[in-house]
Structure formats: C-alpha cells, structure tokens
Amino acid sequence: MGDLETIANEVIQKHLNDPFDYEKVQFEVLSTIRYDPVLYSGGLSLPEALVCSPLDKSFFLFLDYHVDRLNETAEFFELPVQKLTSSLLGAQLSQALYDKDVYQAHKMRYLLHKDGQVEIQAIPIATSLNLDINCFPTWTLYLDSEPTLISPFTSFKSTYRHHYTEARKRKIPPGAENADVLLFNHADQITETSICNIAVLRNDKNPLTGEINTRWTTPPLSSGCLCGVTRRYLLDKGIISEGVIMRNSIKDGEQALIFNGIMGVAKAVIKL
Question: Which Gene3D superfamilies match (predicted)?
C-alpha cells in the first residue's frame, strides 16, 4: 500500500501544481441545475408561486451549492465574470423559463463562456427526482479498462468531455440503457463515472474504539473526481463519507450509489 500511496500523492501533486494552459482548450464552464415544481417549499400556493418573477429559489435543486461551485470554477479559470449570488442565479434561471411550461421539470444547462457571457438552456425532462439511498438497482456500471488522467476538467464541470466520451466508447455496450462507466486515475483510485459521483459500501474502523462501521464511501476530491452538488448534499447530511477506494477493491456484482444534480440518487450494479 505504501507504493500506491506514493504514486497517488505524486499524481495529486502534479494535478495541483503543474501549470495548465486552459486558454488553448475550447470549453464553457457548465452547471446542470434541476428545476422542478415538486421542490417548491414557499408560503404561496403553487399556482401563485409559478407566476412570480423571479421564481422562488426552492424550485431549483441545490441552488446554493451550484452558486458556490460556479464561483469557485470561474475563479480557478480566471474568467471575467460577476460573482454569483443565489438571488442572481435564481433570477437568471427564472428568465430562461419565461416561455416554458413551468409545471414541467427542466434541466437547466448554465453555460459560462470564457468572455464572461452566460447562456442558459432549459430542456424538459421526464426523469423523476430521488434522494433516497434505499432504492433498487436500476443502472449498470462497467469498470473502465484504462485510467483517466485527472485534470481541471475532471475536478470542475465543463463542456470539455473528451475523456468521458472515450471511456464510454471503451466500455458501454452499444444500445445499453441506464449504463455508465466507472473511472479510475493513474494511481488506481476510483474517481467517478462519466456523469455521476459514486459511493460504495466500505468498512470504516474507528481509530479510538476499534469499532468497525460499514459506510457508503465516496472518493475524495483529491482523487480528481468532480465536486458534485448532490455529493456535497449527501456529505453534509452524513449519508456518505469520504475515503480512498482502490480499483482492486471493486468486486464484480457489488452495488454502488451514483448521484448527480439532475436525477439525484440511483443504485447500480458494477460489472468488471
């Protein structure tokens, strides 16, 4: 394990310290935000709330987390943009829904361009939201056969997705539904999937009492995984905890939680 830890630290330090010329890469900063009338928790009736402008921020899943991530990402890439607040982001999203069916859930694609311009796309979705980890497996994860190089484009959400696209091509069978690829870095640490953060059941030993607890464990951000908003929610609620997950610890047929800001939480079966 010592050698693996050394390699892991080398990979992480390279990721954090190497200069990165992002100006040569075409991309937009991206956040996908769920708008859903079932999320509303304000004091007005739903019909009254839906005609207000801007819409109540409770209509947007994890809005405050999206604000934090967008600000951190814009700062990292040194983009010339006004710092977001929940009120500003809520108003921008509300405007993008002006001529849409607000009784329908939408995926809001918030695109921040390098020049600081903002573009928001509202896409109707039929996927229901689930935040209960006690669900049945409905997805399949295929463990990748090659490592994915961690970079700012794995740590921060953007439209540059070449590494994810290649991993999906390698492992997901043609025509497969509810399927994703499980990624690992060059230190053989599990990181995420191509569209979700992940957690698996692992034993956690209390160093003081020696008591062993089984917890849903998600890779730390230092592995190179995305700082996902649902990941943050589950951590804040104490539903999952952070821990390094080595590729050789993954078993064929074991279950995993997968989660993102649009579908919430789902359960998957891993195939090696």
Answer: 3.30.470.10, D-amino Acid Aminotransferase, subunit A, domain 2
